[in-house]
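Hi support team,

I'm opening this ticket because the web form for multi-chain structure prediction keeps timing out on my end. I have pasted the exact lines I submitted so you can reproduce it. The total is 550 residues across two entries, so I didn't expect it to be a heavy job. Is there a limit I'm missing, or should I split the entries? Thanks in advance, R.K.
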Amino acid sequence: MQIAIIGLGLIGGSLAKALKENTEHTVIGFDRDENTLLDALSLGAIDSVGSTSLLENADVVYVCLYPADVVRFVEENAPHFKEGCIVTDVCGIKNQVCGKLTEIAKNYPFVYVGGHPMAGKERSGFDASEASLFYNASYILVPGEAPQSATDTLVSLAKSMGFGTIKYCTQQKHDRMIAYTSQIPHVLACAYVMSPRCDEHSGFSAGSYRDVSRVARINAELWADLFLANREELADETEELVRNIERIRAAVAKNDRAELVALLSSAREKKEKFG
Amino acid sequence: MQIAIIGLGLIGGSLAKALKENTEHTVIGFDRDENTLLDALSLGAIDSVGSTSLLENADVVYVCLYPADVVRFVEENAPHFKEGCIVTDVCGIKNQVCGKLTEIAKNYPFVYVGGHPMAGKERSGFDASEASLFYNASYILVPGEAPQSATDTLVSLAKSMGFGTIKYCTQQKHDRMIAYTSQIPHVLACAYVMSPRCDEHSGFSAGSYRDVSRVARINAELWADLFLANREELADETEELVRNIERIRAAVAKNDRAELVALLSSAREKKEKFG
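Hello R.K., no limit was hit. The queue was backed up. Here is the completed structure from your submission:
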């Protein structure tokens, strides 16, 4: 197949490398930065630099841009996708992106399937990309109204790239779950390092500090967009979190050891049960 | 030297194993559980099972019990420590323990130095202990009024066990910093997994979920004691955290992208600067 990758950042670059390393498909790379394209070519992460005519021959298009740019790209390029072409994205939020792309796809002969590879790291850009980024990761698919065959193609590609789990859901379920599993840890990490004690943590900290603060090394522009594109779900989940912090704080404030042990034990049981 | 270890749990067991593996000192083990003592003996983690006469010959005593039990043990055994014996503990809070033990030490010829090896894991007990637990970890010492020679002895032992950093401070500073570096991550992890979304996280989660939730596999009894023994500092730090979460939430609620990017960028800068 001819596979086009739009945007060779951390995710797009890693998809390109993983496809080249694990499949025989032809990978065509698009990026606004010429040096990135040259690096990708020289490293063998792509077979050729993209052009409109190459895009018109693509069987699968991974649009690996920020949410608003994904919509803009598909709006502008919809007339160039060939009939039956599978267009997918990698955005960390789905309601806004899937809704708009599903609408656009109704007027053109391409197929849209929402996608979200659950992998990342604290660095961004093509230099940080790697073929093994998705190894054992989860790949969430939001098929919407797409035919089964399109989803099957993406799953087959994902498995060849090393993804460990495939999860299907609606865009609403995706955004609700992602607010919890991904956005809240980023809110927390940032709020945590804002404490004046952060400045002096060295020598007083160990694994638990390191783990909670890790994702504070955040891509601020990207995550601001992701948070704002999921405002209601994130607000609900933040309220849930603050409510639970307050339950623990209240037990401490009241010096209520029995209540505190009960709360911590229930947390332990949940962690042991759900992993 | 003759080194006594009181309580062969995760920390005491690891100290015993690390001392036996890295030094020529004699290690004497005390534990209320006979099977633990037999295991420790057969694994070579201790040279002999403790007795009052062996305690009376000890040059260094590591009391590796829960905070209240540390105080009780030292109260009861103060008459048995030999002149110049160095008594230390491994508690995660210091105000309560150091205050009381410093008082007791004034009436006896032994020397007390507060200690806190910054290492742990999600399992507890002797079975979870290991000689390498302290490798590259930080060892916080609260010397109080102890002579330099006593602190030097503990530092020398710590270095031979592989500790990477030695930090000296007052008990007040210790408890303030620990509320932030260690207690807040445990509060957070427990509050985080209390969300109903935790039950369905599988397939939707990746590294950031795993890292924030890790220490929810908590020793509830121990941490309830640690939280309650540091109520004021923990309350202050919890307020600081909730205030910062609310700043991020407010920017999201107002759809204020500039403010949100500024907050996340400031968090990133702090993480990059302070690690």
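A quick check on our side: The domain at 174-274 of chain B is CATH 1.10.3660.10 (6-phosphogluconate dehydrogenase C-terminal fold). Let us know if the file doesn't open in your viewer.
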